[in-house]
Amino acid sequence: MTDNSPRAQTGAPLRLGTRRSKLAMAQSGLVADAVSEVTGRAVELVEVTTYGDTSKEHLAQIGGTGVFVAALREALLRGEVDFAVHSLKDLPTAQPEGLVLAAVPRREDPRDVLVARDGLTFEQLPSGARIGTGSPRRMAQLNAYARSHGLDIETVPIRGNVDTRIGFVRSGELDAVVLAAAGLSRLGRTGEVTDFLPVDTVLPAPGQGALAIECAATSADLAAALAELDDPYTRVAVTAERSLLAALEAGCSAPVGALADLLVDGQAVNELRLRGVVGSTDGASLVQMSITGPVPTSHDDAAALGRELAVEMLAKGAAGLMGERAL
Ligand SMILES: NCc1[nH]cc(CCC(=O)O)c1CC(=O)O
Is residue 137 part of a domain? Predict the structure, then answer.
């Protein structure tokens, strides 16, 4: 297949559709530079306004973070932009017809972090500490950890961009907020992190820390060029994580955590481990399991690992824990 669109032939700048938020602009800017390098073409950012950017409603009520993605995808399908960059963890697991995930670049630190007042770590938070997070996944795991370690914390539902969320701590309204390390790193704000939460305590969202570069299926030449930015290990890991999420039939704001990592024995990478968790937001019940297999050599094999873990988690009651949410 060749790319017959006029733009492919003119050498005009490639148009990167992006949301206007600081995080989206930072992510798009990083990818724009990398794409310029591999294609030898200029890349221009085209702002696309999404319903999620303007709505004051609670995310859960308007259908999860997927709303941010929809407008970008429509712009791609209409040919108004040539490619788009998403946070992979915000992408619905079903790949829409007409669009391809051209690349998943090497993932950043997948962990969640704490930004707390007075430089406090999670263990140093005082009794009764109020921790802000809008994520049922983070609530479930923080509350479960607190229960099993005799800590007294309160998770407080919040939403908003990174500035808004950290603002709750700076204003003294909350003792701490939980954010993704990758987002803060891309914003150059890692210095504000007061604790990196171990993945054994809080397993990140499927795909957290990874970006997805998407274009129209008809832009075959562009897709091939973008594929140079793909990191095969990251792709395999996030494919397993997202397949677990899909097989649990959970949405992107469900209380599901997943992380696949490569186990290295000596010099050789020889196994992929996939860990998954589902919990009730109060932390009273948690299903946490892991599975290990040979490093998948295809996306299908990676997806199979995710489905296998989902079957085991469902057998341990995972479905009942997601049932408390409509999404
Ligand atoms: N839900 C919003 C969102 N989507 C992606 C990131 C951070 C970047 C990433 O995880 O790749 C964030 C912010 C956060 O969770 O703190």
Answer: yes
pLDDT per residue over 232-245, tens digit each? 999 999 999 999 99
Same domain (yes/no): 12, 100: yes
Catalytic residue among 90, 112, 175, 195: 90
Can you give the residue range of the structural domain that contains 218?
Answer: 6-105+210-230
The CA 94 to ligand 1 mean position distance, Å, reads 19
Q: Is the CB of 208 under 6 A from ligand 1?
A: yes
Kindly state whether residues 135 and 251 are assigned to the same domain: no
Complex ipTM > 0.90: yes
What one-character-per-residue DSSP string does 140-201 give? HHHHHHHHHTT--EEEE---S-HHHHHHHHHTTS-SEEEEEHHHHHHTT-GGG--EEPPTTT
Put simply, whether the predicted model's pTM sits higher than 0.80 gets the answer yes
Q: Is 182 in the pocket of ligand 1 (CB under 6 A)?
A: yes
pLDDT of residue 264: 83
Kindly state whether residues 223 and 95 are assigned to the same domain. Answer: yes
Query: Is the CB–ligand 1 distance for residue 207 below 6 Å?
Result: no
Sort strands 129-132 and 153-156 into parallel, antiparallel or unpaired. parallel
**Catalytic residue check, 90:** yes
How many domains does the chain divide into? 3
pLDDT of residue 50: 64
Is 36 in the same domain as 179? no
